[in-house]
Amino acid sequence: RVLVGTKVDENHANWTTAYNMLTGIRVSVSRTNAKLDRPLTDADFDAKQKSTFDIAGNELVPSAKYDFKFKDYAPWVFRHLRALFRLDPADYLMSLTGKYILSELGSPGKSGSFFYFSRDYKYIIKTIHHAEHKFLRKILKDYYNHVTDNPNTLLSQFYGLHRVKMPYGKKIHFVVMNNLFPPHRDIHTTFDLKGSTVGRNYQEENLEKNPRATLKDLNWLRRQRHLELGLQKKQLFLQQLQRDVRLLQKLKIMDYSLLIGIHDLRKGNEENLRDKTLQVFNPGGAGPSEEGFDPSSVLMRTPSKLESARKARELRQMIKAERPIPMEQTSDRMPDELAEGQGRGGVFYNDDGGLRATHDDDEPGEEVYYLGVIDCLTHYGMIKKIEHFWKGLSNDRSQISALPPDEYGERFIKFMSGITMSADEAERDARDREAA
Ligand code: ATP
Ligand code: CA
Ligand code: CA
Questions:
Q1: Whose C-alpha lies nearest to ligand 1, atom 14?
Q2: Which of 65, 189, 211, 313 could make an S-S bridge to 262, C-beta 3.0–4.6 Å?
Q3: Which distant-in-sequence residues (6+ apart) come within 8 Å of 324 by Cβ?
Q4: For residue 194, which ligand has an atom nearest its CA?
Q5: Ligand 1 pocket mutation pick from 371, 374, 377 by most atoms within 8 angstroms of CB
Q6: From CA 303, how far away is CA 207, in angstroms rounded?
């Protein structure tokens, strides 16, 4: 079974949902951003703003193609988060809301989430469970404080939390977050690492069919891979990872992964992705049920630089003037300048949007890593206790993935520290082990 990322247009089964998501974002985000900035209050963390869309529209809500309700959660908090992550409000709206908006990635893995990429590939919309949604609201303040104190955090960057309610009552919760992988670089190998070995294997025989599948811990170990960061970046990286994991432990979160995409500079890009093709990656690569997914390409149109600049300027003026932004205004073109460097602060995203491998002698390496901690909304209480019980009956307890959060975090850090080393260190390590 080969599933490809598909462009979501009028003929797509999820077109209406996607349209509603993006229309809701467009209206509510521009509404919040049009106001004068102000400091956050405690109430902002619990706030929610409801809008009702219909074909007629009114003075508050422009008309939409379909009837639906939209909720924007903690709009001011996310406005501040987007600013902390250095996103430009107009660019954010431009990227997310357009006619050839999204590509949908495969269908749910074991979690049931859907993934959509913005057409410029910078953002991911992930539908989430109600429990994850409630949990994110609960921890939002801790998350916000952590991001404020840790400008280099490796945790997923959340830019918005929303809900669409369809006319027949179905509710869809979703987050907008950073895509760790760049629009303009081929990712040659992807790993989703948890620090566990049980069930953490991708059958390498299938790689031929599925050359860009997401590999796991056992594949990493078998290939004797390591993250080569040089002494300084290694220290920075491990320190930040520890601080991030401390937060996750405190919040009783587990099941997260370190996602690593590797661009090999020796291989370069097979084609000029930015001109016509956007690479789509495999979601749900972490569970057992999604191994059939295949990455693929989605065709996109690229606008002229001039036109993009004009659109971005118009959009900024509209936001300033508090005018509702019509759909056409944000449609079908994406600004070129977006593809370049804007947004995503932090030292780990500085080398071409990623982190350049470095040898111990500080010579630059041949790879660029794109990495971060993903899937960090699973509270231990949700489902894992049950899983832990069942798995614990049959496997070595310390090796199963559903450990309590403290142990999960310790194992995670230990694994990541163990793989962050230079080629020399790795060799020495291997020799020592042989000698012992
Ligand atoms: P499960 O709970 O079964 O692991 P999930 O639906 O919660 O799955 P995630 O683990 O969040 O999904 O993500 C699955 C895959 O999607 C990842 O292994 C990765 O390949 C891709 N992915 C997820 N988040 C990102 C991101 N921020 N940037 C790039 N790729 C991502
Ligand atoms: Ca996962
Ligand atoms: Ca998950």
A1: 284
A2: 189
A3: 27, 30, 61, 62
A4: 2
A5: 374
A6: 35
Angle between helix 89-96 and 305-320 (nearest 10) = 120
Tell me the sheet residues that pair with 259.
192, 372
Helices 230-250 and 405-419, packing angle to 10 deg: 170
* Integer-rounded Cα radius of gyration of the chain: 22
pLDDT, one tens digit per residue, over 56-102 is: 888 888 888 889 999 999 999 999 999 999 999 989 998 888 655 56
Indicate which ligand has the atom closest to the C-alpha of 177: 1
**Under a CB-based contact definition with an 8 Å cutoff, are residues 114 and 127 in contact?**
yes
Phi-psi region at 284: left, alpha or beta (left = phi > 0; alpha = psi -120 to 50): left
Ligand 1 binding residues, C-beta < 6 A? 109-111, 113, 124, 156, 177-181, 190, 192, 214, 259, 281-287, 374-375
Instruction: Report d(CA 121, CA 7) in Å as an integer.
Output: 12
Q: How far is the CA of 74 from the centre of ligand 3 (A)?
A: 22
- Structure tokens belonging to residue 193: 């690492």
DSSP-derived letter for residue 178 is E
Model-level ipTM above the cut of 0.95: yes
> Distance from CA of residue 167 to its chain's centroid?
29
Q: Which ligand is nearest to the CA of 290?
A: 1
Per the DSSP assignment, residues forming a β-bridge with 263 are 368
Domains of the chain: 6-435 (3.30.800.10)
